[in-house]
Amino acid sequence: MFDKIFNIGLKDLLDSMPAEYVTLKEALDGKVEIALNNGLKHRFDPEELRKISQSIPLYLWSLVRIPLIFVKLPSPGEYKLNGSEWDRRALSIILGKENSVLSGGQMESLLRQYKSLIFITLSHDSISGSDRTEDEL
C-alpha cells in the first residue's frame, strides 16, 4: 500500500517537471510560458526575467536555459544544479562564486529572487536511500 502511494506521489512530482525549456533570450523576447509534463503550463514572471538578465552577461543569454532545475541531494540542505556548463556558469555569476553544491541558505535566497525560474526535484539517492550504510539497513 505504501509503495503504491509513494509511486503516485513520485509520478505527480515528475509530471510537474518541465517538458520544454527556453533560453533566457527567448524568454526575454516574449516566450514566457512553457509546457509541463502533465500538460499544464508554467509562466515565468517578467520581473524575475528582467532581474536575472541584469545579473547574467548578454553573451550567455542564448546559452542559458530556463527554468533552472535543481536536484535535492541526500545530504540535508544540499542542492545541485542539473544543467549545462552555461547554466552552471550563469549560476556562479549570480551567486558571486563557483559552487558545485548549494546550501539550503543559498537555495532559499535564489527562490526568493527567482521563484518562477526554478524547479526542484529529488535525486535518485534521495528517494532510494542509497546513501545509507550497511549498519543503517
From TrEMBL:
<dbReference type="InterPro" id="IPR002746">
    <property type="entry name" value="UPF0216"/>
</dbReference>
<dbReference type="Pfam" id="PF01886">
    <property type="entry name" value="DUF61"/>
</dbReference>
<protein>
    <submittedName>
        <fullName>Uncharacterized protein conserved in archaea</fullName>
    </submittedName>
</protein>
